[in-house]
Amino acid sequence: MIIEKISMRHMKMKMKLPFVTSFGTIQMKDFILVEVQDESGNIGWGESVAFSAPTYTEETFQTNWHILEDFLIPLIKGREISHPHEVNSIFQPIRGNYMAKSAIETAIWDLYAKRLNKPLYQVIGGKKRQIEVGISLGIQKSIDDLLEMIKNYVEQGYKRVKVKIKPGWDVEVIRQIRHYFPQLPLMADANSAYRLEDVPLLKQLDDFHLMMIEQPLAHDDIVDHALVQKELKTPICLDESIHSLEDVRKAVELGSCQIINLKIGRVGGLGESIKIHDFCKEHHIPLWCGGMLEAGIGRAHNVAITTLDQFTLPGDTAASSHYWERDIIQPEVTVENGWIHVPEKPGIGYEPDFEAIDSFTCHQKVF
Ligand code: OSB
Ligand code: MG
Predict the structure, then answer these.
(1) N or C: which end of the chain has fewer CB within 10 A?
(2) From 29, 159, 164, 166, active-site residue
């Protein structure tokens, strides 16, 4: 296929509720939608998951725009590509900037699947027809508010609950949740809010049989997490630190974690995601698909990757309606009793809702 035309849109969408983590609050989302077109007019879609500020990892909406416009689009435009796995090596001269790379790379996978007239999940080797999902709940005004929310999501059927923790909002919060929900599959995500000297505090969480603690230490650490894992019974899961298969290999060899949170954007796209999946399968490392508060296009790609075997734990891909008044795909992603039924249409399987897309577009540039 020849990548004939590429378009970038600056999208602005407001979430129903602010999402509060140890690194800050997100409610307004500025993000990039990428559209790639081949020589026959087929179109593939990708979404950049970077936020407006570099508070989760370094990348932002604006750095992604710059890297896409000035480096990645010039490398890919007009090129003949026989398989999307080639995109990784075409982008190889550009260091880092995983979310920017992923926005085009995932669009090319969608395009490739549409050319084959097959659903993307099958093209990447997925077999599940439905996937299990959990919910990620931000920091709330009070523990009572959080308990109320948990009750609501458990009643809706979500398969596990993840809560955000930070110093001052941790042991007591988890103790209360456990008191009211003794059997709930529960986990905590620190988003890098702790340091090595907090190990005694983190050890207190061992009493609450959490499924895992996600990213307790620095966003760029792999080494010290191994020291923490040695001290804890609870499995550690890495999120922010993982940008590649090499990072996963090092984390597993060092014993820095027992579980991996995979985000397609954080590792540069579906090609690298598949490699990480295959490695985790071979080494019996449980994997699950994280979320970046995506709109419909990113959410659809998350659904597709989660159909691979080694995604053995529920992901953070909740229903569109949990985040948005109106999403940008038709139908929206829906969750029934904790399950998403995987769509069977070609490509990502959900249609772009052009009316919604246009209404949330601030600016578009075509290459
Ligand atoms: O650490 O997984 C995270 C949201 C924004 C940034 C980082 C994270 C999250 C979430 C929510 O936990 C995931 C989602 O519901 O999309
Ligand atoms: Mg996380």
Answers:
(1) C
(2) 164
